[in-house]
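The pair is set out directly below:
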Amino acid sequence: MLTLKSSGKGASGECRIALLAKPKPAGSSKKIGAAFPASGWDKARQEAALAALALDQDQVFFPDAAHPLLAASARAFDASAEPGPRDLEQARCLGAECCDVLNRHGLKGAVLEAGSDVAPAAVAAFAEGMALGNYQFRKYLSNGEGAHSMHQLKIPAGLLGKAALAELQGLLNATVAARDLVNEPLSYLTAPQLAKDIQALGKKSGFKVKVLNKAQIVKMGMGGLLAVNKGSVDPPTFTILEWKPAKAKNKQPIVLVGKGVVYDTGGLSLKPTKNSMDFMKADMGGAAAVIGALHAVAANKLPLHVVGLVPASDNRPGGNAYVPGDVIRMFSGTTVEVLNTDAEGRMLLADALHYAKRYKPELVIDLATLTGAAAVAIGPLGMVGMGNVSAETAEQLDQSGHAVHERIARFPFWPEYGDEIKSDIADIKNVGGGFGGAITAGKFLEHFTDYPWFHIDIAGAAYLHSPSAYRTKGGTGAGVRMLYHFLKQRAS
């Protein structure tokens, strides 16, 4: 993890990074670029870098005895006082590119500088991209080969205030925690272990945690969660996370619900292994997003009452596993005809959504790697959203998604889609027809709500098979940054 520090002093093994904004010709965009003056920064070097950017050179080179070639690409950017979402994303991507350069040269740290025409928001985005781009999951590697050398980025208080820097570090820590959870294999991260890890994060950042064990889940009658768990040798858990500051600005809590399927074989509706089951450790990406969001909210002490609900189990075909054709009585009392045991996420989410009613919530948002249909529709470029919230709330979520580049593609949610989950022998069935799979899954969940609610399917964005700038290969922590931005705006 790259640590951010409020300091302008360099040390051995570190270099300086200068963020520069190319002058804007009429009718075109500015560019933001980064230069690496390893032996010091002076006016001549700055003028040379600006000249190179002005000529649209892709890279800026500074020969130096210790580091002969340190360079990074320039990117189109508006360096105004209020850079837009796309500008900030360019800064993040540039940060990731710069971090890659520094790691390839074996540098341990860097000191950031910026011209007066580079806004603080751009500085923060650049640092965010560096930190997230430096992420590696190395817990199970036996040697240090391939480990990144970078471990610290120093940012003078004049570029980014200490409070803003601390807030950014809190958000980065939360995103990394979510990535780590998604990357953990089932051999470690069973449902009970997930609950323990949540408790550890709660102690670290300050949110409260309550864990319901299997006996308590049985007593409550959470039929959906228990059905998914029937094929497993590991018990399910239902974990409640809560951040309730003394002066919360909301009278009723905002509830976040995350799908916690720690591994999904598909159950008796077995998945193929290649390019399917082989990365299903990531099927708890929704839970990771909720955990990460609570971690960030508590660490940065947002004045909002926020509750997180994480129903967790693996989905296996063993023992007395539930089968296609079963009818399950859910926590709400609703009966569900199971036609596909691989549509398990909605079963345990439904119980959590019903549980959320006891809070009389202001708003409920659920996140889940729920459907392949969502991943096919928009790929890893965003998240699919739908629900019954007001147009104002939907727009706020949309704006937060764009602000952090975790964009939400809102799907239609017409009532006719609900007809697709009508059953002949039960109240509803757990899969729809041959179209609109992401939407019919949402309609299933809607059945268990009676409050303002928004569903986000992160199936395409939660786990990457190859890196994309600061979104490294594996778990991305998708949803954490968007939720934090949304909640922060809500608090203000």
Remarks:
- Residues 3-159 form a domain with the Leucine Aminopeptidase, subunit E; domain 1 fold (CATH 3.40.220).
- The two ends are 30 Å apart (CA to CA).
